[in-house]
Amino acid sequence: MQRPTRADFRSLLDLAVPLAAVQVGLMLMGVVDAAMLGRVSADALAAASVAGVWFFAASTIGMGCLTVLDPVISQAYGARDEIGMARGVQRGILIAIIVTVPTMLAMLPIEAVLRFTGQPAAVVPLAGQYIRTVLPSILPYFAFMMIREVLQSFGNLRALLLIIGLANLLNVVLNWAFIFGHLGAPALGVTGAALATAISRWAMLAAALVASWPVLKPYLIPWRPESLSLGPLGRMFALGLPIGFQILFEYGVFGGVGLLMGRIGSHAVAGHQVALNMAAITFMVPFGIGTAASVLVGRAVGGGRPDEARRISSAALVVGVAFMTLTASIFLGFPGVLARAYSPDPAVLSVAAGLLPLAGLFQVFDGAQVVAVGVLRGIGDTRVPVLINLAGYYVIGLPISLWLGFHLGWGPRGLWWGLVAGLLVVATILVVRVRSQFRRSLDRLTIDRPGPPG
């Protein structure tokens, strides 16, 4: 790996900071929904929380398929391949449409699944209402993601930051109206929050289309017939599906530990959620760094600058691990203070304060793995990382959680030690793979085979 320059760090941070801000802005909608529904009832809050988890889990595969635009478009951008960029943008639209239908179908059985897993009877129908209300917003959700992927590949995110900020304000106003019955609207509770989210997503898409049209127009008009070719579309799905499963596997192990906490008690679940929420907030920074690295590495590979790609990958790993080491020191040093910001309940505080130091430990590994995944995605390496995730989390991490948490009786901390172990293994192997892959020739992805279009 080559030593990065000051310019490499600057270009990385210039893209990573707005990317992290965009992701935080998208997270805030769910946070606001939860905060406002908490004033309605505990069941309303629980229903929205469970529905949010279900929505994210059901949409991960579609998200992964769209994330393949990172290497495809950024490599074409680096190669100054206008035709390749146009094909990527146009196929991004097709992918967003294609993944919408199976995602909607995957969300429909939420009530049956919640009953099967023993969720409270009062929560199940409310969660079902929430999901049914947001179903029409899945297409704009994916379409907005597609636009974000394209704009971040071009390094043009300023408009999206403003749009997401305004969308959050709109969501607050609509929540106030539809949840509590203001501005002439009926008080709909959970359904009102879902309706506000759905309307906000359509508004975000409309605003993003208007703001990004000058950038997108040259790549959408004229429509290229070869964008509909099944071979290139299939190759993009073959690269994108593993990304989706990788997200799902990682999300699943944390969700699985959350379900296991339920066997210990409600205070364990609440304490787990407090620690996990804090870790999720700080995670947005290395997430942004990893995505920025994916784009910049892709550009360098597409432009035939392998040394630059190697320097960017080194810079990304250094910055990601350094930031998470800083936050880890805070989590390790002040767990009680941080936990009290979320809950005054002594039982919840005890669990959360015990888990936050472990969150500090696994954050360093989590930062390393998400940056390494982004770097590998930039060169089109998406299949092996999903196998590494599967082995690290489910062959090593989760069994250790079960053994320590229940067999040895360590409780919540034992369950989280399994997460630490799993992330350590995943991060180590992924970083080794980065070093291995970047010693080889770095070639641009082949999506369209040579020959006549179509």
Which properties best describe this structure?
mainly alpha, Tetracycline Repressor, domain 2, 454 residues, globular
What do these coordinates show?
The longest helix has 37 residues. The protein is globular and about 60 Å long. It contains 16 helices and no strands. The protein is mainly alpha-helical.
Please tally the β strands and state the result.
0
Helical amount: over 70%
Q: What integer is the average pLDDT?
A: 90
Low-confidence stretches: none
What portion of the residues fall into strands of 2 or more residues? under 5%
- The SSE order reads HHHHHHHHHHHHHHHH
Shape: globular
| SS summary, helix count | 16
Q: Give the structural class.
A: mainly alpha
What composes the largest sheet? none
Distance from first to last alpha carbon: 39 Å
Short description:
The chain is mainly alpha-helical.
Helix and strand layout, with pairings?
Elements: H1 6-37, H2 42-67, H3 69-78, H4 82-107, H5 110-116, H6 123-134, H7 138-154, H8 158-180, H9 190-220, H10 230-261, H11 266-302, H12 306-333, H13 335-340, H14 346-378, H15 383-407, H16 412-437
Helix pairs in contact: 1-2, 1-8, 1-11, 2-4, 2-6, 2-7, 2-10, 3-4, 3-7, 3-11, 4-7, 4-9, 5-6, 6-9, 7-9, 8-9, 10-15, 10-16, 11-12, 11-14, 12-14, 14-16, 15-16
